[in-house]
Amino acid sequence: MVLRNLRRRPLATGLTSVSVALGVALFAAVGALRHAAEHGFQRSAGICDQVVGAKGSPLQLVLSSIYYLGASPGNVSWDLWRELRTWKGVRWAVPVAIGDTHRGYRVVGVSDEFFSRVRLPNGGEGDPLRLAEGRVFDYPPERFEALAAELDAGGDAHLEDHPEVLRAVVGAEAAAGAGLRVGARFAPAHGLEGGAAAERHAEAEVEVVGVLEPTGTPIDRAVFVPVGLYHLLAGHRPTAETATGGARDPRGLSAIYLRTVPGMYQIRIWRRLNDRLDAQSARPVDEVRKLFRLVGGLDLALRAISALVVVVAVAGVVAALTNTMAARRREFAVLRALGARRRTLLGLVTAESAAIAFLGGVLGLVLAGVLAAVASEYVRRNTGVALSVLPRPADLALVGAVTLAGALAGLLPAVRAYRTEPARVLASQL
Amino acid sequence: MADRTACPVPFVVPLLTLGLGAFACDDGAPPSPASSGDAASAAVVASSPAEADPRAVPVAAPDGAASAEDGTSGAAAEGATSGDGFWSQASTLEERAANVRRALAAAGDGPVHLDIHDLGGWEFDENAEQPFPEYVLALDGRRVVLRGFMLPDVDFENIRTFHLVRSLWACCFGAPPGPNEVVRVTLVEGDGIDYTYQTLEVEGTFHVVFEMTDGLLDDLYRLDADRAVELGFDDPLAPASVSPEERRKLGEFVGTDVEF
Questions:
Q1: So what's the ipTM on this one?
Q2: Domain ranges of chain A
Q3: How many angstroms away from the CA of B69 is the closest CA of chain A?
């Protein structure tokens, strides 16, 4: 009977359901996006337990070196990287250089240990990086150490003598976006802005040797080159003016990805690094948490607004039902005359309201899924973080809550139906 | 007749409750409780008058002794779990050792309530065959309750193995924990817990192990925990005049970790 009543007024039912759906969709999408974004960021944060870089904001260091967002706080001496490799409790330390781009994708200098050692957290041992195509370049840390020693000694190292640095392994997204297949050649552009006007390192034509499988992390948007390339490019070589030993000395690294033995070693290494005046160590796990705490207030405001939208939508259901009450007085009177009890009428109208709210809730979740899917494509393109669009248990609870709210709100018009006096209504219409 | 005005109120409530889930607030600056060697806290905190002289209590109380002291050991165990006096303020090694011995004696056959702080302080010699002091060795295989802060590795959620320390990263003035001031906690069942800055209380079987792998020291203290509870923020440095409840309330600005 409830369904038949609803079907009899398809426009009213449809419109009120859609308004509830929009509210629910907004509410669920805001929640899902935030949850998914946080999850994606967390997965990316797990590639190492510490990032070492120049003194400055640890958040900036983590964002620039792991998420490739914003500029690096400066360089940290490569002496520290050499030293770190000998520290007790250090499992691996990958040298990282950032600062150049290719068609808007970051060119990231690393040693080949990056491909063999980095694991993406999966709750267990972690997923290694996999190649979709080609191979990884051969640039062991020893080779970079030798180059650093040569440059330290004032040697005149040239690109021509180090052809091994003219290789690139490209993340999945960057490969698709910049058309970089195995065998493609490109010259990285100086600076982070990219674009046609950017100054190109025309002297360095880099050949793509491999393409990585998608990871759902910023790695997808990076173009990896041997870290030594950075130190061999024109304008990157140390000069009397730049070799100051400070945070802009080209004999340095933008960051060092550091993996340590958890527990005592980890906390002691972290502290020892932060004790230095020329370097800091940031824990991505903590920085990402801080970041989401920072944006938490904004997120709360969004949730509150979307909750209000749901409230308004449910109020709309009540208004629509109340409006029909006058027209349906006859119907209720007949039902009463036929022996329907007052309570039956109360239940009938309440159930109609709840059904509309339920319909709206389910529609809303579907809509939220679509919204999240669209947004996730955008987020993936811009940050490389993959969002999941499947509804979470909390969303199902939301549908339950909205249905309940619809039922409760339906009591208002239901009471009017409840009070229908069949004799008076029917008599007046004779 | 039904009350009309009552209608709009209840349906707002569940929605607001859902909205409040957005308060996924964690602490930006982790609480940093006592660091070792605080000269100001020279006095040994005694949870109850019965414990006034810690050195009088034998190391591992035999059954008979435990039952003979039933009254006092019961009171002491209660004192330790209530939060009051859980955090040790021992500054010398003797005081730390005395705290452990007292906790052992007070526990009888039950769980030993310990502060990680009291497990450290002794010079660790990795060349020694058996580097542990006897009162630490006595804890091996015992059921132990510890409180501290989580030091996760790289995960945020479903963490089953983490390290427990008495103090987090934030304090620039304290010393970093030594090998005997960190406990590796493994949750033996369940899906693990999420990364939290709140005080954790864990309970399980304690192991005291000395092993080296590839020249690196493995965790000396390990706890196979079957219980992990997230407590509020509990500031061990709050003045003694502040009750445990008030002390936790002081920390409530930190918020609780709510799954969003």
A1: 0.72
A2: 2-40+295-428, 50-282
A3: 38
